[in-house]
Amino acid sequence: MQTQTAPLHRSGRRRTHRREPVPVGLVLVTGAAAMLLLLWPNPHLTTGPDVSTLPAVSTDTLSNPESRHHRSPRRTAIGAAAGTDTLRNALDVGDYEGAVERYAQAFESADPGVGDTYRDTLLEHASDLIQVGDYDSATALLDAYLAVFFRDTEAWVYAGRAYREKRAYRPAIEAFLMAAQQDLHPDLRRLVTGQLSLTVNFLVQQLLEEQRQEEIAELYAYLTQADPRNPHYFVALARAYLALGRRSDAMAALYHVAAEEAVADQVRHLVENIGAVD
Fold this sequence. Notes:
Elements: H1 26-38, H2 65-68, H3 73-92, H4 96-109, H5 112-131, H6 135-146, H7 153-165, H8 169-180, H9 186-209, H10 213-226, H11 231-243, H12 247-255, H13 264-277
Helix pairs in contact: 1-9, 3-4, 3-5, 4-5, 5-6, 5-7, 6-7, 7-8, 8-9, 10-11, 11-12, 11-13
């Protein structure tokens, strides 16, 4: 990822004409995310409420409230409506890169309200695609969007969901990891990491059924590097190594979390088992 030298919008774009936006209050962020994530079904177990039925919720506020007081709400509404018609047309014909470029232009130069409307239109379209099961189109749109606006947590969550629904578990995991690594409130982070854990479990189960044990070890090795704050990944990596007979590698993995209270019992049990074998 390229180093940015100018202030960044949370979506990852450089903001050249406006100051960095101020996040909405934590109640709004956490509440919206809770609805977004807790209503998700396990795609393998239920057909209950679906995140894709929820509207896209922007977590940006006005970047320059004082200047907004001098803008005409009518002009903003007319400009947004005209622009979203063109944006929707691009989305309807699958011109996702063109749609993202239209939003990027609005983001850089237009009234902030117009840019917010464009963003919501893009994510609502992704949500609709997920709802109707068109996961390929949903991921194509979200990939195009996130290539430019790579700090948009909500978009990463949508991408994780869409990839998981079509059983592309590795890109789903990467998307949830990107969402979890943003600057999140602790409650929101727990919700996102819960979705990540669910997706990891799906992939591990698939690999177990296909007897691809080496790939399980590779997956957890990747996760320990991507999120070294999670001690459970190191324990899982140790178990995967033991299944392959790689005891010294298992001990090395356990060494990293030997002082972690959350996994202390598991570490002690595994170390005892390794010692018993020796």
